[in-house]
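Curious: explain these tokens?
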Amino acid sequence: MTHACGVTRFVILLALCAVLGAPARAELRVDITEGFRAPMPIAVVNLFGDQPQETQVGKDIAQVVSANLERSGLFKPIDQKAFIQSAQTLRVMPNFGEWRTINAAALVTGTIQMRGDGQMRVEFRLWDVFAGQQLVGLAFSTEPQHWRRLAHKISDAIYKRMTGEEGYFDTRIVYISEVGPLTRRVKRLAIMDQDGANHRFLTDGRHLTLTPRFSPTLQEITYFAIVNEKPRVYLLSVDTGKQELLGDFSGMTFAPRFSPDGNKVIMSMALDGNSEIYSMDLRTRKVTRLTNDPGIDTSPSYAPDGSKIVFNSDRGGAQQLYVMETDGANVKRISFGTGRYATPVWSPRGDLIAFTRMHQGQFYIGVMRPDGSDERLLTSGFLVEGPTWAPNGRVLMYYRQTPVDARGRGGVARLYSIDLTGHNEREVVTPLEGSDPAWSPLIQ
């Protein structure tokens, strides 16, 4: 199958007898719904190849897989210096006793072969060390230059087998790259793999750009820009770089976001000084007004099944979260905490809504159920804002900005991720400062 962004082509050749029979001991598994727990020790061996090029790519793949698993906070890769058995001897069967002596609970092995037709064949296996059995075995074929994406696919397969949840490593992040003094900030669209690799800029910085969002198909990004002092909403093709103007609106426009089927873009527009929520049908360019209230309505986000919309509004006197039908009917307030609520975004699983909360000079990233129950605050800071979900609904990304001192220093913006339990918070490194991230669906 071909990735919509032209990045790579993969063919899954076969599933190598994934042994799912009744094990002799309790099944090796990671529970990602718990709070903090010690990460699982896992040994990721360099993929074995006979030729120097194969050896190097096999090492590179193992490093990316190990780094992905470590960043998830659920696994603790064991230093390869502790390995007793070599990659070559692992081609047949691991000596599980040797891996138990270094306390490995799981083991990843594999082989790599450059074929005469220019394709690279990679096989990998995931083993339960204590039970002495194979958990997953897969083979892939791809062009050698796409080894990194293959490493993400292997990481996703391991994550899914060990947690029961879909992985999120074969994904991308689009965000706003920032540079320069706070009064003359240059903001450009940028895109990268979820681990920061393959970074590139999508706009040149001549115009202020904000709130990028992926389409469900990954082929397009919608974003807001100020061009010649006019607010505009654009569609940008990730494949070709072609940019299309969605609207040159008479009022300020904010936070465009795709519907789950990709056929509409929902946004807020401020006409006559009052911000309301509108949707645009991308096939007909017809614009439909969804809210009609004296309050400020903004930051809309669709439920993953397309049945409802969450947004924030001050119609009740303070900025709170509301849910309505997709035609604007049956508006219901769902947040009732102290302070103000903003930037709601529905989880891809449909079970939670993430948001930014502001109270007594402090910002928080939190989640609640679609009916407003079970609110939990995951992290806080001087300024934390703009949550976005990984496609499996288990990890959030957002940006964090430092305070500005009396001499105008500070105000540094960086991307961060955190898991749904409120643990494993860590910076997502970017070449320059970064804000307003958006996580892509899994690449197909």
